[in-house]
Amino acid sequence: MTDAKQQTPFDVLQYLRQELMPHFLCPGCGHGIALRALLWAVHELGIEKDNLAIVSGIGCAGRTGAYIDANTFHTTHGRPLAFATGLKLARPDLEVIVITGDGDCLAIGGNHLIHAARRNLDITCLMLNNEVYGMTGGQVSPTTSEDRYTTTTPLGNTEAVFDACKLAEGAGATFVGREVTVQTPTLKNLILGGIAHDGFAFIEVISDCTEIYGRKNDLGSSAEMILSQKSAMRPETFENNIIDRPFRPNALPTGVLAHDKTRPEYGAAYRASIKAQQTKK
Amino acid sequence: MIIVGVGGQGVIMVSKVLATICQMQGHQVKQSEVHGMAKRGGGVFSHVRFGEKVWSPTIPKGGADVLLALEWAEAMRWINHLRPGKGIFISDTQHIMPPFACRSRQRNADAAYTRETPHEILEQIQDGYAMDATTMARDLGNERAANTMLLGVLSTALDFPAEDWRDVISRFVPPKTVDINIKAFDHGREWAELVHENPDHAAEQLRRPEIAPALLSEAGEHDGDFVQLDINVDWCKSCDICVKMCPERCLKLDDQLKAVLHKPELCTGCRICEWLCPDLAITVHRDPANVKASA
């Protein structure tokens, strides 16, 4: 992070594979905003493109990583964290960032998430939560809110909603955060904190799916959707406030929800144990 | 007497001084004050009544013998409380622009501040003083002493000994600023006497260029006025977020349903459209050098 780098203003075009643009995402998809926030954080940290490894899974969110002009790896469904674990252990010099969706991370890759969080390897996991399987036509996902219509829940969703941040925190992630896309600079700062954190960082980005999810549930235009997402959230700073009334009863907290600096990072501990074993022989 | 001003100017301090000095002269005094929020549209005022016997602490409209205003718009707000034809009007010509008076976020924009100039008001009032006390006090060394300077002007109208005034003022102002406040008080007295002798003296002072409100004079120092929006129409997918989220409503979708900047003069370069464009199609340039580099 040199001073000269910080002075150059952020230009998202430098970090994009411009020949692939415009991207495949639907009009008004919040994943694009999350992509900008991620690249902005990378720029502010001064990470070289060659030292940046983006691992992404399947789905709209997974496809988003392909537009970044860096080392990108598009993996099988639900396994980006497994791939990233191997990558980070083999190449600890790389800054490994996982872009994954709610279905990718919580349904198919749920097992990988809890174990990646448990190990506390220095990976940043960016989960773009749009509450639906958008790429396959709008099926119900583990984070779909109650009573919402999808192609597989034509009568309204009756399943309980997964709180991904609580899951990650419970599984042992040492940095957990949540933010909405409409707060782009705040989201950028959160991602920046996650990447800079030495250990597993899990960041849930509340994104919007206007074309499929929003249309089926009458959630209005993209602008209305991102604003309603913002109003449904409760900044973490208000968490312990007695005056709770401005927020909805089931409002999810945003901001940094957990930050534990005491747990050792897995990669360093693993290499130390190997070294100890080698010196013994 | 009514004393009005904006929070922090010393309205309460001035009224305390007045109440005390009236008591010292053997009058009965009643004082009533409200400290609202003048900058948000409320009022900061203090009523001081004195005499042999005072019944009510407040002064009705058109019943004030003295209106002492520490700020020009507040003076205009309260001028109808002055006794018609007889009341003494003393005001600072300083402008403190309240935020709600700003009609738009453009720099140097037209603001809804009171349009009356000191000349217009003084022509209609028999015994009126409008002085740029803030600048004069700043010349003396501390612009916060403007209130005692106005007290100095007032002291020439009341029949109390000057020594008592100085004594009371030095009791109420912060200990460190006693000297400057006494100086300001004397300066105000001298100024008022000059005006008594030669009414044109005040007019001459006011002929100086109008003091620009601090808000506007500092605006130019902000990072340049250059704003240019680059919208990549090939990438734009007409999602409408930029149009709906722009605080100045200066973007719209054209007949091809692509975002265009249709009111460039309103754009403040706040970058909200850039941040929220999911298609990464909008770039806001604030520095002319970067435009050349990317072109």
Mean pLDDT across all amino acids of chain B: 76
Number of strands of chain B: 10
- The CATH architecture assignment of chain A turns out to be 3-Layer(aba) Sandwich
Q: How many discrete structural domains of chain B? A: 2
Point out poorly predicted stretches of chain A: 1-5, 240-245
Distance between the termini of chain A: 40 Å
CATH superfamily of chain A: Thiamin diphosphate (ThDP)-binding fold, Pyr/PP domains
CATH fold type of the largest domain in chain B: Pyruvate-ferredoxin Oxidoreductase, domain 3
Which runs of chain B of at least 5 residues are low in confidence (pLDDT < 50)? 207-223
* Percent in helix of chain A: 25-40%
Whole-number mean pLDDT of chain A:
85
Q: Largest interface, counted with CB-CB under 8 A?
A: A-B, 29 and 22 residues
How are the strands of the largest sheet of chain B arranged? Answer: 2-3-1-4-5-6
Strand order of the largest sheet of chain A: 2-1-3-4-8-7-10-9
Shape of chain B: elongated
The first-level CATH class name of the largest domain in chain B: Alpha Beta
Describe the structure.
- The complex is a heterodimer of chains A (281) and B (295).
- Chain A has 281 residues and is an alpha/beta fold.
- Chain A has a single domain (3-280), classed as Rossmann fold (3-Layer(aba) Sandwich), CATH 3.40.50.970.
- Chain A is built from 11 helices and 10 strands.
- Chain A has helices at residues 3-7, 31-45, 60-64, 80-90, 102-108, 110-119, 164-171, 184-196, 210-216, 222-231, 266-280; strands at 52-56, 71-74, 95-101, 124-129, 132-133, 139-140, 175-180, 201-206, 233-235, 252-259.
- In chain A, the strands form 2 sheets. In chain A, strands 2-1-3-4-8-7-10-9 form an 8-stranded mixed sheet, with helices on both faces.
- In chain A, strand 1 (52-56), helix 3 and strand 2 (71-74) form a beta-alpha-beta unit.
- In chain A, helix 2 packs across helix 8 (184-196) and helix 5 (102-108) crosses helix 6 (110-119).
- Residues 1-5 and 240-245 of chain A have low confidence and may be disordered.
- Chain B is an alpha/beta fold.
- Chain B folds into 2 domains: 2-219, Pyruvate-ferredoxin Oxidoreductase, domain 3 (3-Layer(aba) Sandwich); 228-294, Alpha-Beta Plaits, CATH 3.30.70.20.
- Chain B is built from 12 helices and 10 strands.
- A 6-stranded mixed sheet of chain B has the order 2-3-1-4-5-6, with helices on both faces. In chain B, strands 7-10 form a two-stranded antiparallel ribbon.
- In chain B, helix 1 (11-24) crosses helix 6.
- The radius of gyration of chain B is 26 Å and the shape is elongated.
- The chains are: A alpha/beta (281), B alpha/beta (295).
- Chain A binds chain B through residues 9, 11-13, 16, 21-23, 25-33, 35-36, 181-182, 184-185, 210, 221-224, 226, and chain B through 234-241, 243-245, 275-281, 283, 287, 290, 294.
